[in-house]
Amino acid sequence: MADAPIKISPGINFRIALGVAVAADILQFAVIPLLGAASPADDFLDVVIGAFLTWLLGWHWEFAPSFLGKLIPGVDLVPFWTLAVANVYRKKKRLAVTEGLGRAEAERNAESESSRS
């Protein structure tokens, strides 16, 4: 029992990712504009947030528009990181439900085949 690896629930990863994404979007909306329009801090924050979210959740295509959208002036006011994490969560939830339904159907088919034998 002591040798078993500690496994972090995916739900915790999504909560952390959402919190980090919201914090990054708030910083980019409220604090970084005070430093100037073309602030290197804004770009640095995008690179760090993108790397952290990819490390935490794995690569998802939703992160690419989030990163690239920040390069267009004015578009960086949209909370792209929060939207990207929310969309990844939605897709994972849908996939889990679909897999669960597929698994339940496979179990029912197995039961019906075993009852016929």
Describe it for me?
By secondary structure, this protein is an all-alpha fold. The protein has one domain. The chain is 72% helix and 0% strand. The chain is built from 4 helices and no strands. It has helices at residues 10-31, 40-57, 63-69, 80-116. Helix 1 (10-31) packs antiparallel against helix 2 (40-57), helix 1 runs antiparallel to helix 4 (80-116) and helix 3 packs antiparallel against helix 4. The relative contact order is 0.12. The model has no long low-confidence stretch (mean pLDDT 76).
Distance between the termini: 40 Å
How many strands in all? 0
What would you call the shape? elongated
| Total DSSP helices | 4
Radius of gyration: 20 Å
Order of helices and strands: HHHH
**Low-confidence spans:** none
Determine the strand fraction and express it as a percent band: under 5%
Q: Tell me the major beta sheet.
A: none
Structural class category? mainly alpha
> What is the average per-residue confidence, as pLDDT, rounded to a whole number?
76
Return the domain count.
1
| Helix content bin | over 70%
List the helices and strands and how they pair.
Blueprint: H1 10-31, H2 40-57, H3 63-69, H4 80-116
